[in-house]
Amino acid sequence: MAPRIDFKHVREHADIDRVCTHFDIELKPDGASSNQKKGLCPFHEDTKPSLKVNLEKRVFHCFACGAKGNVIDFVMQHEGLDIRPAAQLVAEISGIATTASGPPAPARKRKEKPAAAAVTGSSEPPPPTTSETPAVATDEPDGEPYNRPLTFELKLSHDDELTGWLSAHGIDSGMIETFGLGRASSKSKTIPDRLAIPIHDQTGRLIAYCGRYLGDNKTDDEPKYKLPSGFLKERALFNLHRLPERPEYIVIVESYLSVIRHHGNLNLVSSFGHDLSLWQLGRLKDTACQRFAVVFDGDEPGRTGAQAVAGQLAKIGWVKRIELPDGVKPHHLAWEDLAPLLRQQWV
């Protein structure tokens, strides 16, 4: 049996200064308070000290990339660990027990840099796990990989260009707030200045951000959508956690924007593409819904994918495939234009 860990005890007695030093993060005084320090943030390409650390509260916050949390969150994020091994490591580095009555954890030596880096200066350690590069864990009940929940949220901004672009795509301020949309920082390592779309798992835990290109100067080799490296699309359904309990029907679409634009009128999820994985099909079955509609984009990939997905859904309920005109996507249509198509073919 694994030894007991009192996470509250570890959080309240850890030495976050020593933890940062262990990972070669040099902290310097920040202001008059001896409990406040600053350093270079390890979660983005920081060139000036953006990381603020409160030694008394044992918390951190980067005001550039938005990373924040307690000392255990810091190690989870930095090392890509689950909460138990992260708390154990915090205790070992801090030289404290994992419970109030237990013996101190064995001391952990300071993490060494790779030898090649010390000699040549050219080798780099693996990139840290951040909100934009989520780790993949393997401790779901079915033993299969899944997308690890994030420990913090990105700090997103709003400006006239962003809200104007969203408005032109039929997405109003209410949906911006509902879906937590905003512009990622220009300092983001993977989605700078893009529309950041938060993605959640079936329980509502934040697992990733997708970056959608904004503007008119996209190069051919620049993808319209960017998902984090290692993100498992087949182990997620966008907007699943917002469905009502035992929904009367579910509409499956391809894109985020189609979900966001019509969320106020329909029960929608996005399959992240033209097909459904067995995991996604299982989660839809878990909703106990008996009626499904597939409304993919009006192009050849969309029609071919819709036919295959409809065949899969037919195994768990009644399904209707609704074809859109050539070149038309669900989010191209206002509700008053989409509703008649649904009523005509799915009543």
| pLDDT < 50 runs, ≥5 residues | 111-133
What's the structural domain tally?
3
Number of helices: 11
CATH fold-level topology of the largest domain: DNA Primase, Chain A
- Described by the principal axes of the CA atoms, the overall outline is elongated
Account of the protein in words:
This protein is 28% helix and 15% strand. The chain has 347 residues and is α+β, with helices and mostly antiparallel strands. It has three domains: 7-113, Alpha-Beta Complex (DNA Primase, Chain A); 160-235, DNA primase DNAg catalytic core, N-terminal domain; 240-345, 3-Layer(aba) Sandwich (Dna Topoisomerase Vi A Subunit, Chain: A, domain 2), CATH 3.40.1360. The chain starts with 6 loop residues before the first helix and ends with a helix. The model is unreliable at 111-133 (pLDDT under 50).
Summarize the structure.
This protein is 28% helix and 15% strand.
Short key terms for the protein model shown above:
347 residues; alpha+beta; DNA Primase, Chain A; DNA primase DNAg catalytic core, N-terminal domain; Dna Topoisomerase Vi A Subunit, Chain: A, domain 2; 3 domains; five-stranded antiparallel sheet; four-stranded antiparallel sheet; 11 helices; 15 strands; 28% helix
Would you spell out the secondary-structure blueprint of this structure?
Layout: H1 7-13, H2 16-22, E1 28-29, E2 36-39, E3 51-54, E4 59-62, E5 68-70, H3 71-79, H4 83-94, H5 115-120, E6 136-137, E7 146-147, H6 160-168, H7 173-179, E8 182-183, E9 195-200, E10 206-212, E11 225-226, E12 250-253, H8 256-262, E13 268-270, H9 278-286, E14 291-294, H10 300-313, E15 318-321, H11 335-345
Parallel strand pairs: 12-13, 12-14, 14-15
Antiparallel strand pairs: 1-2, 2-3, 3-4, 4-5, 6-7, 8-9, 9-10, 10-11
Helix pairs in contact: 1-4, 3-4
